[in-house]
Design brief:
The structure is a homodimer of 158-residue chains. Chain A contains four helices and eight strands; from the N terminus they run ββααββββββαα. The first copy, chain A, is α+β, with helices and mostly antiparallel strands and 158 residues long. In chain A, strands 1-2-8-7-6-5-4-3 form an eight-stranded antiparallel sheet. The first copy, chain A, starts with 8 loop residues before the first strand and ends with a helix. In chain A, 27% of the residues are buried.
Chain lengths: 158, 158
């Protein structure tokens, strides 16, 4: 029996300023892509359990762009970027937290069909320095990733 | 008298997979930005002298996208990307040569007013590996950069 990665691994690349995230889902690549592209699905699962995502702008096509708000009890954060590529097994986009508008990451999501109804997600986030990469790793990002992917598991099961 | 950089410096970053390009122009930052944003101006100067640029798609705004063709005597190359940010002193965009569609660079153009009618352009191109960065550096890119910036000098002088 194959072991599946049902808690995300979050790893610093040893050579370049990239974060690697790997996680398996009981779904097809097409279902996982749709959960990232359809704004009504995306806002149901992305982010920590105690925060609410709302879309400001969403044009999920190659050459489109996006912006959303991430609201907690007493703060509101905004994130934005453009979609370089939306493919059947890959999404490439830019990513900025507007609290630090100079910082831009290049994010690549790659989906691999593992067979038996499972898909492996590999997400990379490339920044322009090891300092900014390591600041993201130290930011508590794993809470949002693990909460979010647990909600995505539940969404995919429905 | 200040020394100006009138032949581009093209340098490999020692720490991260970035190419740095630096070049001074006798113009304001606004004029240099306009020469990168206005498609009729951009196609007059970008690239090597022996090739012709034509626009396929051009939507130069934050969240827009672009695609152009680069034609030689017997070949046609296509390039495309999305505009993450178009500011008064900065342009951030993605960049793909469609001959290698998996490869995506994140490019940042920053303009600094040097005074006395001069502006310094600093362009960075960030890739996800040192191998792909070094392949760009070995590709003969300096011909297009130096030819292109000489044409941009002439355009800005008019």
């Amino acid at each position: 029996m194959t072991e599946h990665i049902t808690t995300a691994t979050i790893e610093a690349d040893p050579v370049v300023p990239i974060i690697h995230i790997t996680r398996d889902f009981r779904a097809t690549p097409a279902q996982v892509i749709r959960a990232h592209v359809d704004p009504e699905l995306f806002t149901q699962w992305v982010g920590p359990d105690n925060r609410t995502m709302t879309i400001d702008h969403w044009d999920a096509r190659t050459g489109g762009s996006w912006r959303y708000f991430d609201a907690g009890d007493d703060d509101l954060q905004a994130f934005r970027g453009c979609f370089h590529e939306i493919g059947e097994h890959r999404i490439v986009q830019t990513f900025t937290w507007e609290g630090m508008p100079e910082g831009v990451s290049l994010e690549t999501l790659t989906l691999t069909d593992l067979g038996d109804g499972w898909t492996r997600l590999h997400a990379t986030s490339l920044t322009d320095s090891f300092e900014s990469r390591d600041a993201w790793l130290a930011s508590g990002m794993e809470v949002g990733i693990n909460d979010g992917y647990a909600k995505l598991d539940a969404l995919l099961a429905r």
